[in-house]
Design a protein that fits this description.
By secondary structure, this protein is mostly beta strands. The chain has one helix and six strands. Helix content is 13%, strand content 57%.
Length: 107
């Protein structure tokens, strides 16, 4: 499922997506953050309706915002994440990243 990353920190991520995720579930995140590849297991901590976005037919669709925490990052993952955060400089990520959730595992 493609997602937009709203922001990212050393410990977690805020994502926007077209469907909701159950808090407590985990998912595999694959992203390119400012040109730097990053993959991690994410545990969903919260999810709520986040507003509406335009669809490709000129209508509006409901989007959800989900917060998640990274689970068990290896040293290389932490290094890549730190590089990406430094490169982005705290800017909004949506225009500088592409991300996908894979293998959502229910709680």
């Amino acid at each position: 499922m493609p997602v937009d990353l709203v922001n990212v920190s050393a410990t977690g991520v805020l994502m926007e997506m077209p469907s909701s995720l159950r808090p407590g579930s985990t998912c595999d995140l694959a992203a390119t953050l400012a040109g730097i590849p990053f993959a991690a297991l994410v545990r969903v901590t919260r999810c709520r309706a986040g507003g509406f976005a335009a669809d490709d037919k000129g209508g509006r669709v409901l989007v959800y915002q989900a917060g998640g925490e990274f689970v068990g990052l290896a040293e290389e993952q932490v290094l890549n994440l730190s590089r990406a955060i430094e490169k982005i400089g705290g800017a909004r990520l949506a225009s500088q990243s592409s991300a996908f959730l894979k293998a959502v595992k229910p709680r």
